[in-house]
Amino acid sequence: MGHLLEVHELETEFRKDDSFLKAVNKVSYTLEEGEIVAFVGESGSGKSVTQYSGLQLIEMPPGRIAGGQVLFEGEDLLKHKQNSKEIRSVRGGKIGVVFQEPMTSLNPVMTVGRQIEESVMLHLNMNRKQARQRAIELLTQVGIPDAESRVDDYPHQFSGGMRQRIMIAMAMSCNPKILIADEATTALDVTTQAQILELLRDMVKKTGTSLVLVTHNLGIVARYADRIYVMYAGEIVESGTCRDIFNNPRHPYTIGLLRAVPSLSDPKERRLVPIEGVTPDLRYRTGVCAFAPRCMYATEACFTEPSPKLRDVPGEDRHQTACHRDVDKSTVPVKQTVEAVRKLKDPRELVRQDVILEIRDLKVSYPILKGILRRKAGELAAVDGVSFKIHRGETFGLVGESGCGKSTLARTVMGLIEPTAGSILFRGNEWHQMPEKQKRSLRRDITMIFQDPYGSLDPRQRAGDIVGEPLRNFKLVKSEKEYQERVSELFRLVGLDPSLQNRMPHEFSGGQRQRLGIARAIATNPAFIVCDEAISALDVSIQAQIINLLEDLQEELGLTYLFIAHDLTVVRHISDRIAVMYLGQIVEIADWKSLYDNPLHPYTQALLEAVPIPDPEREAKRERKLISGEVPSLINRPVGCAFSNRCPLATDECRQGVPRLRPVRESHSVACFKVDAP
């Protein structure tokens, strides 16, 4: 029998200035019926373009398919014109796509039901009544509650997780043979992500649909994929079964990706090993191995001989690698690599250190305005009675799903939002009650690293001016010479060449832009830095570089971090103590070891259950109990414990009373009626 999908020597190019950038370079792969295949690699590796090329979904021009075949059920899709009837019958019909950002993929002025109906009527020749019934049926299948009434709602009336479910319903509406999920869970919280992936797997198992996962999350791949294709610079550099790739990676790039990924099973002292350097400019291919400049195992042949082709790994069925050398995880690198053990602080010692920031019963509320006169009808408590302390020199992690109030809390700490009640004490001084003149003098001691490294940099300023601006604002230098020396020193501190100061932000990679943001944050010699999702937008290899940089700067400069993230593996790796937040309240606080080894609150347990581990053998043995539903809006907040409507342990007591945060063990506090002190 032939393959369901067979791609031969696919080449896709994009015109850039006066040259062509080859985004996909002679890629070949296969897909079987009912199989789950993953494409992994950094941003710009060609994962998504490879999938969209077969469906001719790339923009032409500037893009063009320069060569190759894409055989679907034996027919070459590339022989048809981009918008021909034949290719449109395949798109959305026989091959469905779930995109990364559902809000940009759904029509905001059409009801979700009508959008599903259009696809069904086009591909399955149903009438309007039949199509509507099919839409309700699909919404029910993907877990949209009360689908019969919600079918007439618009996309903005759904949460992010619900919108992604609707995208899955649309993609599955015409019973496709192949479903492509392009980073379909990247923007979702860990619990919602787990629900969506379980839903996808269950649906493809029931229908026999083949699933293509395009992702950079190796934990997801370990749990769900049957086979994996690893891509770099528009080429497949390794392919094999999930177990072969994780247990016996044979390409240096795959080995590098696995070393750069934190895991819940890691020893705490393990230092992440980033892949140094950046992906090459694909306009200037040299014909040799594209990964050689970043490779720890590269020899002279890698820089002089033609780029290696995929070859079979001896003794392993369907495992191929494209490398001149026969390397594995035990091979000694040619280049020096730093795998130093981190100097860990004992979390119990931090209690005896100075408190640099104390939050007491903090509340941040927003008015609910109703009627034509916009009168105040109530309040939404985004942060509701939060209290905790951060000690000098520690990293305090703050985790929780979207909408729990993490970023609101961060902005309030920074002084960007005024609290409704409670207090914030920085070095014992009430931060929000200070006179503006005194507050300004303290602003240099509290800085922030933002989530989006591009959006937080002025696109019209040079890199050197961006980093040096705080020096001028706070009059920290006395002369132009001192200014230039300090800016150069800051560039070196964050691992950037000072000669790059005259470049504009768009001329830097994502990781370099985040380094610029960090350089700006440390320019004033601050004592306290708020890291608000500072690494969530970065590739896994660049993420490892930034984590190591933050740890090094903390050790060198004595910094204290409030580290906000939704990736629990990263938070575990970098934090000394961690607080878990849900609907504006802290539900658990503990040192990292207590929290991960023995989580007490049902919500914390659910978060950890939902985290995928980048190890297929351990994932296969795990029995995960996922919580249903998503974080409710603050308007629909449950009476009593905020988690009671999703908690498997909830009783009438939980639905009527609000549990207070109380200590149950040394340095471990929890807000739950069902947890008793030992």
From TrEMBL:
Keyword terms of this UniProt record: ATP-binding, Cell membrane, Membrane, Nucleotide-binding, Transport
GO molecular-function terms, A-Z: ATP binding; ATP hydrolysis activity
Record SMART domains: AAA
Family annotation (Pfam families): ABC_tran (PF00005), oligo_HPY (PF08352)
Domain ABC transporter: 7-258, 357-608
GO terms classed as biological process: peptide transport
Topological category with respect to the lipid bilayer: Peripheral membrane protein
Protein name, entry field: Oligopeptide/dipeptide ABC transporter, ATP-binding protein
Source organism per UniProt: Thermobacillus composti (strain DSM 18247 / JCM 13945 / KWC4)
Upper lineage: Bacteria, Bacillati, Bacillota, Bacilli, Bacillales
